[in-house]
Sequence to fold (60 residues):
Amino acid sequence: MVREIMKRNRTPYNTTLDNNLVKKLKFLSVEINKRQNDLLEEAIEDLLKKYESKIEPKKS
Fold:
């Protein structure tokens, strides 16, 4: 399984989340028939876009 993940240019990433957030994520996942991982990736992409313009690139 790990080999398959690496072939798809993916990295395993573990963390802990608030119990209520996990519960809501599970319900949403079932409701819209989308994997929880896909929802988390979408949320991270949105978060990065939100802060992208607020972070100045470091000068070399």
Summary: The chain has a mean pLDDT of 89.
